[in-house]
Design brief:
InterPro entries: AhpD, AhpD-like, AhpD_core, CMD-like. This is Alkyl hydroperoxide reductase AhpD. Disulfide bonds join 131-134. With 172 residues, this protein is mainly α. It has a single domain (2-171), classed as Up-down Bundle (AhpD-like). The protein has helices at 2-9, 15-26, 32-46, 49-60, 65-90, 106-109, 115-129, 132-144, 149-171. The relative contact order is 0.19.
C-alpha cells in the first residue's frame, strides 16, 4: 500500500518510473525482507522525504525492529564509506588508498540481520551513492557468499527505481 501511494505521487512526465515502481513489490529474486531493507536503506540515501516515508511504511510492515535498525545502519555506514572510498578511488595519488581508513565499521561485522541481507543493502546504497570501490567490494562479498548474479542485478535495479522515484518527485 505504501509503495502504491508513492507511485500515485509520481508525475506524468515520469510514467516509466511509476511502471517500474509497480514491478518493485512483484519481484521475486529477493526475499521480502531483502526488498524491504533495500527500500528503506535506499530511500534514506535518496534524501527524499516522500520516498523515505513510503519506504519506511513498507519496510515496517515486513521487518522487525532489528531489521529496520540494520537497514538504517546500512544507509548511514555506507554514507561514510562511500564518501571516503570514492575519494581514494578517484584521486590520482594512490598513496591515500594505502593509508588506514581509521573509520569505525563494527556494524558490518554484526548487523543484527543475515549478513547477505546487509550486504545487499550496502551494495544498493553504494550504487545510489556512486562508489565504485564499495560496489565492487560488496558485489564480490555477495558472490563469495553464493548469491546469484540475478539477485545482485535485481538489487541494483530496485535501487535505481527508488532513486528515479526520488528524482521524479524532486523535479515535479
Amino acid at each position: 500500500m505504501a509503495l502504491e501511494k508513492l507511485k500515485s505521487q509520481i508525475p506524468e512526465f515520469a510514467k516509466d518510473v511509476r511502471l517500474n515502481l509497480s514491478l518493485f513489490a512483484q519481484d521475486e529474486a529477493l526475499t521480502a525482507a531483502q526488498k524491504a531493507g533495500l527500500a528503506l536503506a535506499c530511500a534514506i540515501s535518496s534524501r527524499n522525504q516522500e520516498v523515505q516515508k513510503a519506504c519506511n511504511a513498507y519496510a515496517s510492515s515486513i521487518l522487525d525492529e532489528a531489521g529496520l535498525s540494520a537497514a538504517r545502519a546500512a544507509a548511514s555506514i555506507m554514507a561514510m564509506n562511500n564518501v571516503y572510498y570514492r575519494f581514494t578511488h578517484l584521486v590520482s595519488d594512490d598513496s591515500y588508498s594505502r593509508m588506514p581508513a581509521g573509520l569505525r565499521m563494527n556494524v558490518i561485522a554484526n548487523p543484527g540481520v543475515p549478513a547477505v541481507d546487509f550486504e545487499i543493502w550496502c551494495l544498493a546504497v553504494s550504487v545510489v551513492n556512486g562508489c565504485g570501490r564499495c560496489v565492487d567490494a560488496h558485489e564480490q562479498t555477495l558472490r563469495k557468499a553464493g548469491v546469484a548474479a540475478n539477485v545482485i542485478h535485481t538489487a541494483v535495479r530496485l535501487a535505481a527505481i527508488l532513486q528515479s522515484a526520488a528524482i521524479a518527485l524532486e523535479a515535479a
